[in-house]
Amino acid sequence: MVVYGVAVLAGCTLVGLYVGDLLGAALGLQANVGGVGIAMLLMIACTNLRAAPLRPGTPAGNGVDFWSLMYIPIIVAMAAQQNVAAAVSGGAMAMLAGVAAVVAGFALVPVLARMARK
Questions:
Q1: H or E element: which one contains 13?
Q2: What is the DSSP letter of 90?
């Protein structure tokens, strides 16, 4: 059932945002640092976790598989909540970090494609 996938997604989101807030507080910032990314990584981990209740063919497994296919648009929507205007006005370092992350992501595509063929 898709509802089980929604429950796993909600749990991953809550844990990710909480850990992101803790990370921000540890760094002395009043912001969520990486909570959306942590939520995405947790969802990927839950998708690859093939414990008895989450294995393919079970209701929970089918729900998690469905939402694992949907997590990219959801993550984009969650990231849209973040204040882009503040990041842009934050200076060149914020822009440089964003550009570096995108370039690194593009550079890793061929590496990941080679790993997937093996």
A1: helix 2-26
A2: T
